[in-house]
Specification:
Immunoglobulin-like, 5-stranded mixed sheet, single chain, 8 helices, alpha+beta, 19% helix, Neuraminidase
């Protein structure tokens, strides 16, 4: 053995040892790439065969050792241009890792971008070179090692078998083509948005953020601003509606899930630090929860509480500490936390849907094996959750972020979708309220968090590609003219939207819609049942591709159902009153539905022309008119009033009787002195008669000479 070693020489042994170790190192990187692209593992879990070596310090020390060994070979007699190129390549590789380890020490965490790749220093300077500024970090280091090993192999061949290069020179003119093709294939194979697999979707889309490192969380604020977390760079960005991108939080320890609380403040999950931070209105960060192990995604409730997927809070550690296994409820007002759901396999995104909590996972411990499933937990009155049930359990593989649209459909980012035998990679699925799964988008690079805007737009944080996609929704449907009120028990709502879209109308707070498909021109008609005698608020949505696409914002309308007639009463004159001359006739009409539209007054068979106040339609209308009683005969006469509301409901007639008396009674002196009289007191008696009033009911007034009239009284002397 010693003679064999002596015969081979120390230089050759060192060269061969270096080459062997570097081939093994390359194999480690190939395993990591396979874990990501073939097995679909998320990048934080894809750490090769020996995860303990996947740290910045180890990479830097390793490359310094490789660089020193190549330098030693050059000083010990290996004269090779290829080995010099290997030294230059290894030096550049070492600079890359020197930058990474320095950056990690400065910010206190690893996993950030380097000089090259997506989110790297070159990309941050707005330099765009396919591959150099678009590759993910694992791909960048794979390329570094492929180049290093290839140069080492060529240098070793020239050193060990000097005659081979002479043969190789004859083939040299043929090499540029294959080399260029190989490099182009490498660029296309590992660049986000691969040319052979363009992103496909059931909606038009655009990339509104690019060149970041590892985008995970996305949330939409009330003012339509977007927040997105870059886990690799340790920052959270804010993207305004005018496309201005600013950093609102930096130097975070692997920020992941984001959520906007009910009060408008942003909540940030720090995955590595095990905390939940809150972005205050003054721009500062406050800690609202700590002590969590590997928290990942978060969803908020309206009562200042939140649910977070995490590895644990109080449970023992699992085998894989990066795997979220529980859901923790955080009461931010009380400052308390509790595990409300445990025993979950790979818990990821969370969503609240119609009184339930949806958890993206790969199943529950003790349950059937699953590549991906959405679990549904009923939320109890105290915020705890009941037992899980499988909801949307077929066709998903490694689901991540979830988001709920206006119609209670759930969009889920998944490593893979399988629907009726068709497979979509790195996809976005749509789980309908009935748990039917359809595919929405495919061929993304690394879909993580998803969120829906107030206009129905879908936002997808595409992980290692460093991109944020926006999938554009259809506009709100255009509704045909609708009456403000109706007395019909149903109403046909017609409108226009995109062809073959599904139209859904919700009446008031209904959870189930009336639906119809638009025809090839986009026209739809929906027959809506109305509850009697109330105001109805209609919300009409359009969902493209027959319900499988995105949902529009709502077109709204209001309609009053009213099949009750108005009520009417007389206010003047009083019933049975004796009237004469010009008399004011007045009534009050009320209608709490569509409102009083008209009032009809009649007296003694004659129509009156009432003044109406306020001007109809109104809930209460006072009608008044002057009736000239001299146009009719004396005696009992009938007044009547009717009212009609805005939709044609007519009240029953209300009548009132009055006594018309325009003829004065006849009077006569019966007894009394006549001519001259010497008495100082004289007595006169008198009587009267009337066609309407009985003689016994008459009252009399008298006067002497031109004196004042006495008060009326029933006396007759």
């Amino acid at each position: 053995m010693r003679r064999w070693l002596t015969r081979r020489g120390l230089t050759r042994l060192v060269f061969e040892a270096l080459l062997l170790v570097q081939v093994g190192h390359l194999a480690e990187h190939l395993v990591q790439i396979s874990q990501i692209h073939l097995l679909g593992w998320p990048p934080p879990q894809a750490r090769g065969l020996i995860a303990a070596f996947d740290v910045e310090t180890m990479h830097f020390v390793w490359n310094v050792a490789v660089l020193a060994t190549v330098g030693w070979l050059l000083r010990h007699g290996v004269r090779s241009t290829t080995l010099v190129m290997t030294f230059v390549w290894a030096a550049a590789h070492t600079v890359e890792h020197g930058y990474l380890v320095t950056h990690a020490m400065l910010i206190g965490r690893e996993g950030g971008p380097g000089l090259l790749g997506s989110g790297g220093l070159l990309a941050s300077l707005d330099i765009a070179v396919p591959g150099l500024t678009t590759w993910t970090r694992p791909t960048v280091h794979l390329v570094w090692n492929i180049g290093e090993v290839l140069l080492l192999v060529l240098a070793y061949v020239g050193f060990a078998w000097p005659w081979l290069p002479r043969v190789g020179r004859r083939a040299l003119p043929l090499t540029p083509g294959p080399v260029a093709a190989a490099l182009a294939a490498l660029v296309l194979a590992f660049s986000p948005g691969r040319a052979d697999q363009p992103v496909t979707a059931l909606a038009s889309f655009d990339v509104i953020v690019d060149g970041r490192n590892d985008l995970v969380g996305v949330a939409v604020a009330a003012d339509d601003a977007l927040y997105l977390s870059d886990r690799g760079a340790g920052v959270v960005y804010r993207l305004t509606s005018s496309a201005a991108l600013t950093t609102v939080a930096a130097n975070l320890d692997r920020p992941a899930g984001l959520a906007v609380a009910f009060d408008g403040r942003l909540l940030i999950v720090e995955e590595h630090a095990g905390r939940i931070l809150r972005l205050e209105r003054n721009g500062s960060l406050s800690v609202v929860a700590t002590g969590l192990k590997t928290p990942r995604f978060i969803v908020v409730d309206d009562d200042d509480t939140a649910y977070v997927s995490a590895h644990r809070l109080t449970s023992p550690d699992g085998v894989d500490r990066s795997e979220a296994r529980v859901v923790v409820r955080v009461d931010m007002a009380a400052g308390t936390m509790a595990e409300v759901a445990t025993g979950i396999r790979s818990a990821q995104g969370l969503a609240r849907v119609n009184g339930s909590l949806i958890v993206a996972s790969t199943g529950v411990v003790g349950g059937p094996e699953s590549a991906g499933v959405l679990l549904r937990y009923p939320v109890l009155a105290d915020g705890a959750v009941g037992g899980p049930e499988t909801w949307g359990g077929t066709g998903l593989k490694q689901p991540f972020g979830v988001a709920v649209d206006a119609l209670a459909s759930v969009y889920v980012a998944s490593r893979e979708l399988m629907i009726e035998g068709d497979t979509s990679k790195r996809a976005i699925g749509k789980v309908h309220p009935g748990a039917r799964l359809t595919d929405f988008a495919a061929n993304l690079a690394d879909p993580q968090g998803v969120a829906l805007g107030h206009d129905g737009a879908l936002y997808v944080a595409d992980g290692k590609s460093g991109r944020l996609y926006r999938f554009r929704p259809p506009p709100a449907p255009t509704l045909g003219a609708l009456p403000e009120v109706t007395r019909q028990p149903s109403l046909v709502v017609v409108g226009m939207t995109e062809a073959r879209s599904r139209a859904d109308v919700f009446v008031d707070d209904a959870t189930h819609a009336t639906s119809s498909l638009a025809d090839t021109t986009g026209r739809f008609a929906l027959d809506v049942a109305l509850s009697p005698n109330r105001l109805h608020r209609l919300h009409v949505y359009a969902t493209t591709h027959g319900g499988d696409g995105l949902t529009s914002p709502a077109a709204t309308a209001q309609i009053i159902h009213d099949d009750q007639p108005p009520s009417v009463v007389f206010s003047a004159p009083p019933a049975g009153m004796h009237v004469r001359g010009a008399v004011k006739v007045a009534s009050v009409a009320r209608d709490d539905g569509s409102g009083v539209a008209s009032v009809t007054l009649r007296a003694a068979g004659q129509s009156l022309a009432p003044a109406l106040a306020p001007v109809p339609p109104a809930a209460t209308v006072l009608a008044s008119a002057v009736w000239d009683t001299r146009t009719t005969s004396d005696g009992a006469q009938t007044l009547s009033v009717k009212a009609t509301d805005l939709v044609g409901n007519e009240s029953t007639g209300v009548t009132r009787f009055v006594i018309v008396d325009n003829t004065a009674p006849e009077t006569a002196l019966i007894t009394g002195p006549e001519g001259d009289s010497a008495v100082t007191v004289a007595t006169f008696t008198f009587s009267g008669s009337d066609a309407i009033t009985a003689s016994a009911d008459l009252t009399f007034s008298w006067r002497l000479d031109g004196g004042a009239w006495s008060a009326f009284a029933p006396v007759t002397s």
